[in-house]
Sequence to fold (229 residues):
Amino acid sequence: DQQVKQNSPSLSVQEGRISILNCDYTNSMFDYFLWYKKYPAEGPTFLISISSIKDKNEDGRFTVFLNKSAKHLSLHIVPSQPGDSAVYFCAASARNQGGKLIFGQGTELSVKP
Amino acid sequence: DSGVTQTPKHLITATGQRVTLRCSPRSGDLSVYWYQQSLDQGLQFLIQYYNGEERAKGNILERFSAQQFPDLHSELNLSSLELGDSALYFCASSVDPGGASMEGYTFGSGTRLTVV
Fold:
């Protein structure tokens, strides 16, 4: 049962344009939603998060949007830079279900100069 | 450097063998989590320990086991290895025993296991 899904395995964007990465979930009990970024040969690193009581959180070039009614999460990167090229994982957790992070399959973002 | 240390970085072993992966959590973190990432798969949760005790279990095979020691480092033991066990194994740590927070976990750089 895949509770967190990233349906796009890859995304290619031109430098300077917006990158939009999407994530869908099925568990309405999730309290926190997080995005992680992963470079080859490294572990995932935390990027940005949002709690279920908010619908938007911004940190510099990164903004996460949460649509609870649609059970949909998205990450916007504006403007995209070549250094943003990496695999992005969305993850979610529910405090009353043990709190462990459930990850999506990842989307590989390629930002071309 | 995330502060979470995993050894070894690479491991090549034969089918049927047993290996031990080691993880030292970030200083001050009491929870350790193990995840498996196979080809084209997301990060699959295996098991969590908090302050030496098993806290949560995911899709961990019976051939796999883990423990957390008094100094808080953790070991993941994989036995009777099969070709399909080839994967990246990540360890992560957090302060919060429940794990659910805005900060999430801090991950190590992983151990790449290849079973031949």
Notes: Chain B is about 0% helix and 50% strand. The radius of gyration of chain B is 13 Å. Chain B has a mean pLDDT of 93.
